[in-house]
Amino acid sequence: MISVNDLSPAELAALLHFHADAGVEWLLEDEAVDRFAEFEAMKAARQGARAAPPVVSSAPTPSQAPTQAARRSSAAPLAPPSSRAAPAIPDEQAVEQARFAAETARSLGELKTALEAFSGCNLKNSAKSTIFASGSAESGIMVIGPMPSADDDREGLAFAGRNGQLLDRMLAAIGLKREQILLTNVIPWRPPGNRTPSGPEMDICRPFIERQIALAEPKAVLLLGNFTARFFFGGNDTIHGMRGQWREIGIAGKAIPAIASLHPQELLTAPVNKRLAWADLLAFESRLIRE
């Protein structure tokens, strides 16, 4: 086994980044835990729970009764019942609760409070952070990504880590800073293992992201990534078939212009696509100038 003392700083940083992407957030417990003793105790408790009192074929005599009573009182106590998770809220009920919580918010601040208090989506149970819009809505510019990454979840901010650094450079290329725009994600909680959210999970999260857009009242929206584009535009096309085309998304009875482009992660994976993203950014900039 290779010791960490044998790794270079670059190799150690790569290893830590790998663990972070895998969802590892703590390498050590605050206090030492003897897992072997814990397992043995659990096994002994289960065996005690399965142990049944001896079966007597005939009724005990008066002289036998005290002996059997004492035997029952000295038997090992049954293990306490294991705690079970609260039953899941039916999807339809959770969607209604999400819609009510979102619609009653009258500002982005109120909506953030409502989202942080909402417990009807199982994605929240495994996530460390609730990701909400950051930046400023005054510019009328909104950039929306898919779901939080491991870096986002760890830092509590949309587009953190390498993706965020690349996005900052992309925005700077058209004269924007993240502090000047409203930056958020469709899904506020990181799915376990970065899996794609299920249909019911998307339905539960939809009222919150749509309310963010309605309250921000952007004049133009930039959608990043395949998931985000499908979420708002519908269909099963890939991002390469949806990018670079101005469309309208209906939010609270208003038609808001939106254009899709590649997510920074896709550009890090395939840098050749940066030319496509650059063309989309120029189209986005042109629309902002006209507005």
Automatic annotation (TrEMBL):
Family, per entry: Belongs to the uracil-DNA glycosylase (UDG) superfamily. Type 4 (UDGa) family.
Name by which UniProt lists this protein: Type-4 uracil-DNA glycosylase
Segments for region (Disordered): 50-88
Listed EC numbers: 3.2.2.27
Catalytic activity reported: Hydrolyzes single-stranded DNA or mismatched double-stranded DNA and polynucleotides, releasing free uracil
Enzymatic class: hydrolase
Domain Uracil-DNA glycosylase-like: 132-282
SUPFAM superfamilies linked: Uracil-DNA glycosylase-like
Keyword Protein biosynthesis among UniProt keywords: no
GO MF, any single term: uracil DNA N-glycosylase activity
Annotated keywords: 4Fe-4S, DNA damage, DNA repair, Hydrolase, Iron, Iron-sulfur, Metal-binding
UniProt key word Coiled coil: no
A UniProt-annotated Pfam family: UDG
Gene Ontology biological-process annotations: DNA repair
Superkingdom of origin organism: Bacteria
